Amino acid sequence: MNEIKVIIADDHKLFRNGLEELLRKYDDIKIIKSVGDGIEFMNCVKNQIDADVVLLDITMPNMDGFQVLKELKTVNTTIKPVIISMYNDGNYIAKCAKMGAYGYLLKNTDESELVLAIRTVSKGKKYFSAEISEKMINFMSTQSISENILSNKETEVLGLLSKGLTTNEIAAKLYVSSRTIETHRGNILKKLEVKNTAELIKKATEMNMI
Amino acid sequence: MSIRTLILIIINSLIAFVIVVLAFSSYKEFSNVLNDRILQQLNSIKTLKKNQIEHLIKSEWEKFEISEFYTQNWDSALVRLPDSIKKTNGIHDFTPYHVAKKTTIGFVLNTRRGTKIKILDYNKIKNILFERTGMGNSGESYLVGEDCRLRSQSRFYPSTIPYTLSVKAENVANAFQGKNVATIRKDYRGIEVYSVGSRIAIPNLKMVILSEIDVDEVTMPLKKLRERLAGLTFAIFLLAVMLSLFLTRIITNPIKNMQKSLKIMAQGDYNQTNEFIKNSNEIKEMFEALAHLKTSLQGAVKFSDDMGKMNLNTEYQLKSPNDLLGKSLLAMRDKLIEFRNNEENTRILSKRMLVNGMENERRRLSRELHDGIGPYLTSLKHYIENKVENEKMKKEMKKIVDDTIAEIRLMSNALMPASIDDFGIGVTLTNFIENIKKSTTVTIVYEDLTQQENSNITNHQAINLFRISQELINNSLKHSNAKNIRITLSEFDEFISLFYFDDGIGFDTNSIKLGSGISNIKERVAICNGTITINAVARNTTFEIELPIES
């Protein structure tokens, strides 16, 4: 059975040592290198070091985890990064996942989960625990990124405008200031290249936007 | 000396001078005229009497000439005539030869038949002389001999022999030289009289007739005139004084009023509203000028008052291009505005530096907790995993460490979420509110409308927006009893808008303290050069915060 070759990248030596000692109990996992920052790790990668998984901290001096993830995409390597971080917020998780992380672990993750993650990722699968996945999905669900010309908010404003509501009424309904609605309206006019609300309604109807 | 006294003295002394000169000259003129008239009258009386006497004597002489008696009809015992007289024909004054020195006029004529001598009846002359028509009470006519002794009886001394009374005056001598004299002099009594005289035109009879009247009697009307003039002068003067008093009142009252007004103004009170009588154009204009001065000073005072209260938006209209006071006041205002702006800028700058320092310290502490303590705790957990044999104990210990790590995470996030630096304000607020929702039943809806990529919100603005939101949510949860909280953070090309709503009980924007939460929010908006509109009504409390995009 092949050993899983693991690199630990974290600026806390004590943490690295603890982790090494923890994983030493497992025969299939071998810590081949332990580095203190991103640059040191990237040097190893560039020296064609043979490793399967890197346990990567986000917060590191010189080069942090995000930059490492970005750099890894530019080099030819098979090392699969697993983030091991103190941050448990959805945005961190989502960002790391988006940037190519194979897994996301909290630093106080239990030993069993840590080992499971390493083993899963080493087979080329991604590992996000249920808890981590939930956090990530919660965060992503709040992000209103629209593929349309208008943003979701702008579409909402357009709908209310077409119903004949005044700026103040829309503002009260959407829990924003009147000036915000005015600005949204102005932006909508600009995006649809029309001069006034009447033209806007006409064009929006033609485009089946309302 | 007051202006009134001055005018009084000048006017009255002028009037007094004029009156006195007029009175004196008219008196003088009158007295001269009187003198002339009196002397003329006396002269005519004297001439009349002289003619009468001359006529009498001449007619008597003619009678004497033709009479034929040569008897001596005179008492040679009474009149001792010297031979020289007896030999000289003509009319003679025998008085010096009279034993008793009684006035005697005699005729002497020597013819071939002898010497004729006759004594003229004195009573005839006396009758003529004593006729005193037109002579008043003290007038008299009398004859004086060559020896300056009287020849006719004095009406004042009827019992005295005229010869014993003598007149010592040069006009008698002048009269003897044939001159007509008219003068004022002392008579034989030593009393001032008007006197005219001339010689009786009879050869040998050396006599002068004098007509005299007492000055006292003549000048009686003059005295009366003098008294009347004095009275009149006094009356006119009195009138003049009264008139001038009235006049000076008219002139000086407005001046006094003006002085009063100016005095009050000099004491710094420009609000007096005294109305004054303005009785001439000049005075009216003067008061108008004063009123104008007063209004401009009041304007200046009001303006300065506003300056004092730091109402620096007050405008001041210059009264004229030479309004130096106004100009310096305006310059002062501009300086004050400059100072205030500088002070405001300095205040905001120092506040910003203070807040930045505080936030940096929080960031450092947050990182220290998160990245410093955190790894030690995870290491401790690894140690426990590796070294602790007892499964139960191991589990408990791991739980304590995990709880501690969770706590540290909370503290670190409260101090300064690392997200702000790594992901910006939109995401950070999302995380923050997700965490709060776990510990409250209040519905919080947050809408993040910031730019995901390429956000133009600065880190400084992000931190302040985060703190403001933290404070607002904290206030709503603690004080408002709100069921719903809505937060929208919108980012536009020109500005960032943070809209906050809750349906709580609201608060009084003027008196609320909220542990100075609101004032902290306002301070943070100010140091970001933003604006804040608070609408704190029950069930619909809103905060509209706008920050400018700085890039």
Describe the structure.
- The complex is a heterodimer of chains A (210) and B (551).
- In chain A, 51% of the residues lie in helices and 13% in strands.
- With 210 residues, chain A is an alpha/beta fold.
- In chain A, α4 packs across α6 (130-142) and α7 (152-162) packs across α9 (178-191).
- Chain A is elongated, with a radius of gyration of 25 Å.
- Chain B folds into 4 domains: 13-218, PAS domain (Beta-Lactamase); 223-308, no CATH class; 310-416, no CATH class; 418-551, Histidine kinase-like ATPase, C-terminal domain (Heat Shock Protein 90, 2-Layer Sandwich).
- Chain B is 55% helix and 15% strand.
- The two termini of chain B are 78 Å apart.
- The mean pLDDT of chain B is 84.
- The chains are: A alpha/beta (210), B alpha+beta (551).
- At the A-B interface, α1, α4, α6 and α9 of A face α8, α9, α10, α11 and β8 of B.
Features:
heterodimer, A: 210 residues, alpha/beta, Rossmann fold, Arc Repressor Mutant, subunit A, 2 domains, 10 helices, 51% helix, elongated, B: 551 residues, alpha+beta, Beta-Lactamase, five-stranded mixed beta sheet, four-stranded antiparallel beta sheet, rod-shaped
Number of strands of chain A: 5
Global morphology of chain A: elongated
Q: Largest beta sheet of chain A: what is the strand line-up?
A: 2-1-3-4-5
Question: Which series of helices and strands of chain B comes N to C?
Answer: HHEEEHEHEEEHHHHHHHEHEEHEE
| Beta-strand percent range of chain B | 15-25%
Q: Topology as H/E string of chain A?
A: EHEHEHEHEHHHHHH
Catalogue the unreliable spans of chain A.
none
The helix-and-strand class of chain B reads alpha+beta
Radius of gyration of chain A: 25 Å
Topology:
The complex is a heterodimer of chains A (210) and B (551).
Chain A: E1 4-9, H1 13-24, E2 29-35, H2 38-46, E3 53-56, H3 65-74, E4 80-85, H4 90-98, E5 103-106, H5 111-122, H6 130-142, H7 152-162, H8 167-174, H9 178-191, H10 197-206
Parallel strand pairs in A: 1-2, 1-3, 3-4, 4-5
Helix pairs in contact in A: 2-3, 4-6, 7-9, 8-9
Chain B: H1 3-66, H2 83-87, E1 90-93, E2 105-111, E3 114-119, H3 122-130, E4 140-145, H4 170-176, E5 181-186, E6 192-199, E7 207-214, H5 215-218, H6 220-266, H7 281-308, H8 324-387, H9 391-415, H10 418-423, H11 425-437, E8 443-449, H12 459-480, E9 484-491, E10 495-502, H13 517-527, E11 531-537, E12 540-548
Parallel strand pairs in B: 8-9
Antiparallel strand pairs in B: 1-2, 2-3, 4-7, 5-6, 6-7, 9-10, 10-12, 11-12
Helix pairs in contact in B: 1-3, 1-6, 6-7, 7-8, 8-9, 8-13, 11-12, 12-13
